[in-house]
Structure formats: C-alpha cells, structure tokens
Amino acid sequence: MGNFTDYDDYDGLGLAQLVKDKEVTPGELLDEALARAEALNPKLNAIVIENYEEARRLVEKGVPEGPFEGVPFLLKDLHLLWEGTETTFGSDAWKGYIADHNSTLTERYLAAGLVPFGKTNSPELGLTGTTEPRAYGPTRNPWNLERSPGGSSGGAAAAVAAGILPLANASDGGGSIRIPAAACGLFGMKPTRARTPMGPDRGEGWGGMSISHIVSHSVRDSAAMLDATGGEAPGDPYAAPAPERPYLAEMEREPGVLKIAFNTKRADGSEVEADVAEAIKRTAILCESLGHIVEEAAPRLDPQEMSTHQATLIGANVALALKQRGEARGREIKPGDVELITWLIAEGAKSRTAVDYAAATLFIHQMSRHLARFMSGYDVYLCPTMGAPSIPLGVLDMMNEDVGAYMQAITHYMPFTGLFNMTGQPSMSVPLFWSQDGMPIGSMFTGRFGDEGTLFRLAAQLEKAQPWKDRRPDI
C-alpha cells in the first residue's frame, strides 16, 4: 500500500475536495491508487490493462477542475474507448485494438477531472454474470477469493471493493452494474435508458438494453457522476427525460412516504436462496421502519418469452460484432477465436430472421408499458438483485461445454436484473445485508422510467439508516 493512511475514509467527492483544498495533489492520489493496485491486483486480477504512463501524463498536463478533480479512475475493458489505448472487450479476438478516438462518455469522465489509469476485466463481450474471460483469467471477489465478483463489470467492482479506488466505470446490459455491486457489497445504479451517451460509435447498445455508469462505495458519488456525465449528445437517436434537479441535490431531500412493492420469488414462482429471501424481507422491514408503505406484489411475467426475445436482440448484436471484427482484421472470426458461449450466441442469431428481431423489439416496448402500468400503483419495486449470493468461480465459465448446466446456472443466479434492461427503468442494487457466510447480498430497488431522483433520495436514506461504508473485505 501507499502512504495515504486515511485514503479509505474518503469517497470520490471527498478525495476531490482534498485536491481542491490543496491538501493533496492528483499525483499523490494516483501514486496511492497505483501502490494499491500493485499490492492487491495480483490477488484479484481486476485490472487487466495498465495505462499508468497515460495517467501520469494526464496529471502532469493538469486535470480539469471538475467535480472529481484528480480522482483515480478505471475504465471497463468493454466498448468505452480512450484514444491511444487498447480496448479488448475481454476477448483474444480484439487484442491489439488501439482506439483512434475517445468515446463521448470518456470525454465526460475526463472533463469531470477523473484520472483513468487502467481498464478492468470483463467477460468476453460482457456476455455473462461473472468475470472469467479466457483472454485474462478470472477476477476474484475480495470477500472470498474463490467466489465470483459478478459480471460483467466484475473487475470494476472487485477493484472498488478491495479499496484500490472509490469508484469505477461499469456498464449494464442485463445486470452488469447491479450484479457485481451486489456480489462485492457496493452501490450500483443502472440509469434510465439513454441517460448516459454511447456515442460516437453507437446510438444504443443491445437494442437499448445496455447503458454505462459506475459502481461506488457511496451513493453521492453515483449521483454526482450521473450529474457530470448524463444528458444527450449531438446525434443521439433519443434521450432520457430531463431530471427535475441535479441528482446530488436530490440526496438532500427527504424521499417522503413511498409506496413500495416487494417480492422474493423468481418470475416462475420458484424461491431464491434462503439468505437472499431473508435479506429482502429484512429490507422491506427496514423500509417500513423509515415510514414507507410496503406490500408484497410483483408484475406478472413470462420468463421463457422474455428469455427468447432477449436472446434475439443480444445474439444479433454479438453476431454483428464478430462480423465487424473479422472485417477489420481481414479474416473472419472462427470458432476458436472466441469462447464457446460467445460463438453459440452468434451462431444462434443466424437462425433468427428480421421478423424475429422486430418481434423482440416490439416485445421489450410492450414490456415497458406493462411495467409502467404496474408501477403506476407504486413508487418503487423491491426484489433481490441476484437469486443467490456470489457463486463459486467456474460455474458460469463461458468455455463450459455443458451448455445446459451453464444456462441453468444463469437462470438460478441472475433471474431479476434483465427485466429492467428491457424496460429501460432506473434500477439500483444497495448493499444492506450479508449472508451467514459473510458474502454481500444486494437489495434491488427499481423506479419509474426517468425517475432516478426518487431512487437516489431513498438510497441516501437507507445509507444513513444502515450504513455500509465501513464494511470492507479483509484482503
């Protein structure tokens, strides 16, 4: 570790304030983060691309006086481009790809004063709920090194949970912010569809299901980061509804009396693991104790139909990605170039038609309206983030030739999050309880479309009522 003994006492905004008050320099913060990375990453394998020299040049040049001035940061090794650096999408097939421009979101991170110093591990193309790519090997959960940190932002979550830095970039196309936040005991907000930009290369991800933000220890870092990076960019195909006020200001307001629906069962009626169900019931009791109206209720869903249409949208995008990468390399992608599950997803897309894709798009729009009707009776919907606490490494290995076992594990582990990628609603995982064997359990709260404000107000209230700041893994 470095010499900054009280580094862990500060969130991102707190570190930035130290810089603004000239109590510490961006270079000193970067040195501390790099010292921690050198000490901890060999145990975790969270950071797979080191951009240390680029970070030092950025600091020497002088960082902007943004809300996160001088704060060390990590980008996820998936889609988000930083000019002159490598992005591999967690895949051997993309190794050596050097970006010749920045993503729009990268520009906004840099303008906020952040200092990226590397990229975090992701499963190949972000396709699963763990982080064990063949290209780099598994990332390990700081709470138990034999367990998964979740995915696809598992490298980001492991680095933040271990104390390398207070916040890191993450993205979520089926739960990939909320799942690792839950697995690693962090706060993770998936914003409303189109709240953060995906340009200039894409208008949307996975048919509008994917979006980027961060994982963090504190709620206020998430709110302030969304203030700094949210909003449409020129050329975006559509935009999220404008917020009433800055999200950081929302945290200073009381949430009022919220009507909260809660549920502990999967869409097929099956029970989640006992520790998870108990955590959600205790979360509901906590919300009642804070004055909210809580009742057991859930939207009616057809999990098989959801899975079919989700697979169509994701599969088409994966097949396109492999086609484009093959064209860029001058040699088409073959089965051995990518992992088994990636290849099967892309091959499955070839059996579907344009009509199937249109039907899948129509379905997620219909789901948005179905959930909007359900949410008309509630301010917030509470359910588990995951069906189980963090699972052992290897269970969701994308090289697993037993595809049936792999799909069964996916259904068991991550049955809740993908719905809200389809509907585009803001959804957050909050680390309120831990399992009997000491693993974090996420409570997932979902709001109405465009209403991150209510979620941030509630999250701030929960963080104050049952703080998790000082719950850190012993690593």
Walkthrough of the structure:
This is Indoleacetamide hydrolase. Belongs to the amidase family. InterPro entries: Amidase, Amidase_CS, Amidase_dom, AS_sf. Pfam families: Amidase. The chain starts with 11 loop residues before the first helix and ends in a 10-residue tail after the last helix. It is 38% helix and 13% strand. Strand 10 and strand 11 form a beta hairpin. Helix 10 (303-329) packs across helix 11 (340-349) and helix 10 packs across helix 12 (354-375). By secondary structure, the chain is α/β, with parallel strands linked by helices. It has a single domain, classed as Amidase signature (AS) domain (Amidase signature (AS) enzymes), CATH 3.90.1300. The strands form 2 sheets. It has an 8-stranded mixed beta sheet with strand order 4-6-5-10-11-9-7-8, sandwiched between helices. The mean pLDDT is 97.
